[in-house]
Write a structure and sequence with these properties.
It is a single chain. The protein is an alpha/beta fold. The C terminus is likely disordered. It starts with a strand and ends in a 22-residue tail after the last helix. 42% of the residues are buried. 41% of the residues lie in helices and 15% in strands. Helix 11 crosses helix 13.
């Protein structure tokens, strides 16, 4: 029996984000190692010409083929990365070059499946491929995507979305790995995708519905004091974190601490801490076999009842129901560091 490879074409253009291009092939390259070795992917990089393309990181990439040449082949998956420009006011603008948009639109017509990575969704939208569909992109350009393309139902929360007609959109930037794993799972099954994730030492395989918004990644505050406090909180979630404790750490009064949190982050210190603890609890519930008692301790809730109440407030569900609906595969909690909780995965 001969080797069976699905052709994946990754679109290249000047200023493309490097990780968007190099991340997915790392995932796809491991499939033969986790299967019979006779199935997998052929990944090619296509551009307008075969001249080197300079990425946003300044690294030059040599295309394998041209758009015209690859158009003669049967394409299984067209993968469209993104690019942004930052203006003098440090505002981010997605790039959707008309020439690239036209090429993507033409190639999509002869492709089984189309997927965008990060702000590549703006290219798909400009090509009309997302009209009437739900789509995601990097959170920083989601409002722009919705404004520029009102026919697209933009959802900035999930890390990736699959729509009818085999149109996939992914958030950024490392979410390109989650999207790639989801494509592997669709093609070769969940177990293969999980084994690939373990080989990459990834945080296992996150479901598409998981939020791309992480408490540590919420809008950065304008003061160093709050940033230091945020890091202190995230590194000590299993410790006592009261307003007086935090105020003492920041060398401010209790009242001033609360005022700073509300003005900078829009929430009270208590609400921020609870959000961070619930997020960590969700990660542990999804990917470990830790008991609810253990999760409550690691996240600083103290008791299971406190954990359950916080979970209901944030997710309108219980920790057990959350674990059952989102858990991908179990690993064991084998160690934790002082200050920062750490989970170590053990493969079976």
């Amino acid at each position: 029996m001969g080797t069976v490879n699905r052709l994946i074409v990754i679109v290249l253009f000047e200023g493309v984000d490097l990780l968007d291009v190099t991340g997915p092939p790392e995932v796809f390259s491991l499939v033969p190692h986790e299967t019979t070795g006779r199935v997998g992917y052929e990944v090619v990089l296509a551009a307008e010409t075969t001249a080197p393309v300079t990425t946003a990181a300044g690294v030059r990439i040599l295309p394998d083929t041209t758009f015209s040449e690859v158009a003669e082949r049967t394409i299984d998956t067209l993968l469209v990365p993104g690019s942004v420009e930052v203006d003098g006011d440090r505002r981010t603008h997605p790039v959707a070059d008309p020439g690239t948009v036209a090429r993507v639109k033409a190639l999509a017509g002869r492709t089984r499946r189309v997927a965008s990575v990060c702000v590549g969704a703006h290219i798909l939208a400009a090509a009309g491929l997302l009209d009437g569909k739900r789509a995601t992109t990097h959170w920083s350009t989601a409002q722009r995507l919705a404004a520029d393309h009102p026919a697209v139902r933009v959802d900035p929360d999930p890390i990736f979305i699959r729509e009818e007609g085999e149109i996939w959109t992914g958030a950024g930037i490392s979410a390109c790995l989650d999207l790639s794993l989801a494509l592997v799972a669709e093609d070769f099954g969940e177990q293969v995708a999980l084994r690939v994730a373990r080989q990459l030492v990834m945080y296992l395989k996150r479901p598409g519905g998981q939020s791309q918004f992480s408490v540590p990644l919420e809008p950065v505050s304008t003061t160093r004091r709050i940033e230091d406090l945020r890091h202190h909180i995230l590194n000590n979630l299993d410790q006592r974190l009261t307003v007086p404790d935090l105020a003492a750490y920041a060398h401010v009064s209790d009242r001033q601490l609360t005022r700073i949190f509300k003005s900078e982050l829009g929430v009270t210190p208590h609400a921020y801490i609870e959000s961070a603890r619930v997020e960590l609890a969700g990660n542990l519930l999804e990917s470990t076999d830790a008991t609810l008692e253990r999760v409550a301790t690691l996240c600083g809730f103290g008791t299971v009842d406190t954990l359950i109440r916080a979970f209901r407030r944030r997710h309108a569900t219980t920790p057990s129901e959350y674990r059952a609906s989102l858990r991908a595969a179990p690993v064991r909690v084998t160690a934790e560091t002082s200050g920062r909780n750490r989970v170590t995965a053990e493969t079976e």
